[in-house]
Request: fold
Amino acid sequence: MTTPAANMQIDADRLWDTIHEMAEIGPGVAGGNNRQTLTDADAEGRRLFQKWCDAAGLSMGVDELGNMFARREGTDPDALPVYVGSHLDTQPTGGRYDGVLGVLGGLEIVRTLNDLGVKTRHPIVVTNWTNEEGTRFAPAMLASGVFAGTYTQEWAYAREDAEGLKFGDELARIGWKGDEKVGDRRMHAFFELHIEQGPILEAEEKDVGVVTHGQGLRWIQCTVTGKASHTGSTPMPMRRNAGRGLAQITELVHEIAMKHQPNAVGAIGHADIHPNSRNVIPETAVFTVDFRSHELDTLEAMVRELHERAPGLCEALGCSFEAEVAGAFDPPAFDADCVDAVRRAAERLGYSYKEIVSGAGHDACWINRVAPTAMVMCPCEDGLSHNEAEKISKEWAAKGANVLMHAVVETAEVVG
Reply:
């Protein structure tokens, strides 16, 4: 096996231009993107990605959840492929780089190898996972979760958006329901490049992040039920205000997360009030608590404290409290050999790096259950993501993609 030479680097201008050409599809209102999963914009972005893959000489496979697999052949027909990729779908007010950098960085690896005439023993497969964001069809990382055996395909097909449209129906409508069975592919390894979505790498002036762990996550959907009544004529002591329950549990979630610093976070990011009228005391509040930690004991302790304390807070207000898990995964520890490959790549290229824990969920967190997996991260300005103002530099993108390429190519084994 021959490792790639330090002077083997991607075409930074080509990668940058490709990212911004993709951003022309599903533009947002403030410079970012609204290319939500299984929309017409998603379908158009997929077609552009396939066009680029065809031009690079890749063969495309699509499974029954719309996951796209673009394959560059290796010299050994029996060698398992090395997979690389992320997702092309975005938040409703998403940036240009979240997920997209990982898919198009994978494509740039192939283009660079083609330019240089470099062959690998293992095939390399560039992947676009369906519905990573989970903003239209919950939960996030849905298709990679089915691939890894966490969810069933039937359950995924039945997910509904806010208009009651089903995932399976929308996948068929946009024309990206493939015929390949989900999860049948075997992987030698999987690598994912992503923006950090946090401030650490930029603040510490590091070129890249070597991701050792992902955070575990618990989404707990809570319902506080009180009684709707007139805001002007109901005496204060007689009110059963579900909105107060939401407010007090918001503070409780913050308190619980602060108890477990520095290795935990928690917040309420989604809430619906009913009847949501100016002069009606809320009867119900439905909201989702998001707890995360890379330590399983910490994650479980936070959830346990929420269940122990929230009912009493609501009872004191004359309200009831119910909760159910809306999404969950345990903290993944990424494969030591794959992480080492990322670390060696950064060192070979002379880049500064920091070992970090991913604060967000990624497809790699599910794929880690079925294949050796690791992640590379690049800085993003002010740690901002899931926002149209999300920003990275061309240099950051290039360094992240170079580390990705070296780790992938070393793992796929250069021939000759």
